[in-house]
Amino acid sequence: MAKLKRSKGFLFFYKFLQFIVNIFFKIAYRIEVINREKSFVDGGLILCSNHISAIDPIILCDYTPRPINFMAKTELFEKTLFRLIIEFFNAFPVNRSGIDRKAINTAVEIVKNGNILGIFPEGTRSVEGEIGEVHKGAALIAYLTKAPILPVALASIKSAKKVSREKRKLFSPKKKIIFGDPIYPEEIINKYPKKESINIIAKKLSEDLENLYSKINNF
After folding, report:
1. What is the pLDDT of residues 34-78, one digit of tens each?
2. Which H, E and C letters describe 149-161, residue by residue?
3. CB of 112 within 8 A of CB of 122?
4. Kindly report the CA angle at 194 between 192 and 196, in degrees rounded to 5?
5. Which of 12-16, 114-118, 124-128, 178-182 has the lowest mean pLDDT?
6. What value does the CA radius of gyration of the chain take, rounded to a whole number of Å?
7. Nearest-angstrom CA–CA distance, 81 and 43
8. CA-CA distance, 208 to 206, in Å (whole number)?
9. What is the pLDDT of the chain when averaged over all its residues?
10. Is the model's pTM score more than 0.85?
């Protein structure tokens, strides 16, 4: 079960890890963060990002001020050691083969208790240069909690300059992360019935992710 409140010791340890990982990311990936101030949202929040690599959850955790409780595919919980690690950082499983009511209930509880829920709404890693189909799980949770959705786009930027084989081995493509404006669902929820509200919220999220991704190279 997800922990709805973490101890001061955990939060201190979390901040320490953010500091260490931040140094590594700056060296290995030359990460550039755009509009990070938009991530400073109080209370329950649903953070939604496109998914391009296995380290995306770590990147998002490192550059978001509060701990993120990620909804993660059940397959990641099959190996005991890895399961213990991700559960320590408050990830919880979701079965992607159908509607996982237990995972939805856990997500709603997390958000209603003022925490950040992390979701990759495409459900899997997207092809570089594209935003895949956005599923409606995040929109459903927003409807049930009335909490804002924070869209975030990630991209790997390949340099046009030719580099030596040694440098290509040492460094990965530069990564960028851009935070968008929060989507506040309450106005939509008050205006439309449930099914239509969820569809509108999901469409808005999809459009915002595509817009963020399309302009990430302009910064």
Report:
1. 999 999 999 999 999 999 988 999 999 999 999 999 999 899 998
2. EEEEEEEEECCCC
3. no
4. 60
5. 124-128
6. 17
7. 31
8. 6
9. 89
10. yes
